[in-house]
Amino acid sequence: MTTRTTTAARSAASATPSTAITEEPATTSASVADSISTSPTDAGRGTGTDTSNEADETKAASRNRRSPRTRRRSLAPGKRLPASRLIGPALFLALWAVASAAGQLDPGAIPAPWTVLRTTGHLWTDGTLPTDVLTSLERAGYGFGFGLTAGVVLALASGLSRVGEALIDGTVQLNRAIPTLGLIPLFILWLGIGETFKIAIIAIVVYIPIYLNLHSALSGIDHRYVELAEVQGLSRLRFVREIVIPGALPGFFVGLRLGVTASWLSLVVLEQINATSGLGYMMFQAQNYGRTDIILVGLLIYGIFGLVSDSAVRLIERKVLSWRRTLSN
Predict the structure, then answer these.
(1) What is the largest CA-CA distance in the chain?
(2) Which positions of the chain have pLDDT values less than 70?
(3) Calpha distance 172→178 (Å, rounded)
(4) What is the pTM of this model?
């Protein structure tokens, strides 16, 4: 027993120094790490005023960093309201209905909305309204198509070439200064009183805003992009496809929206001149018989056509120009 105890004691004594040696660096490194990690806190605890000052400075710095972002967000118009373009017309119809129900409007001058709807149903059942609507859509479609083609071709020829600008731009500006509706008597003498002169007038009214906005967009492309394309060695076709067209698309869509609206505005006038069908002819006949309800039916249909066509152009613009970050999106 004595021998075993002495051997165990010797082994424990021999193991103690090695354990102390191996554990001492770990303890030392841990204490250093603790002192490093806790030294700012300990310093802060030692000087309460310094800690409060540092905290105030930190809060002020974070407030200053957040304030520009907050101001930028407040300047933005905010999220888009659902069906926002229908709110205004719906409010107008509601006020019209309330005023008619309260007897504030003369039924002979401005019929109630339900009277207009009833008249629309009668005209549609008789077959008169569908024929007039299709005729008006056909005239506006042909005139808009010809005007769109002419405006784009002339704008490209004038915006991409100095020779084309010298030959085209002055003539278009002169045409813009002449009232288009004043050309109606001359076009009747040239083209007769059929559909041709109506489509020609609509095309002239449409191509002018498309040309002006597209030509302005082409002329407004930054010249640094042209220099960059020259340095990169782009061909004329690639330059037009990759730089000119994307840069001019916003201006083109502005002109397109104006052209769509102009086609309906000119159609109202043209269909009341030597026409035998169309919404304008229907309104002209209703004027002779004092039917203000029929006149309002024609005006509302024109307004619906204009709103739908403008919304369609806006939708196409949003899809094509989805890469832009603007206030609208």
Answers:
(1) 140
(2) 1-78, 327-329
(3) 10
(4) 0.71
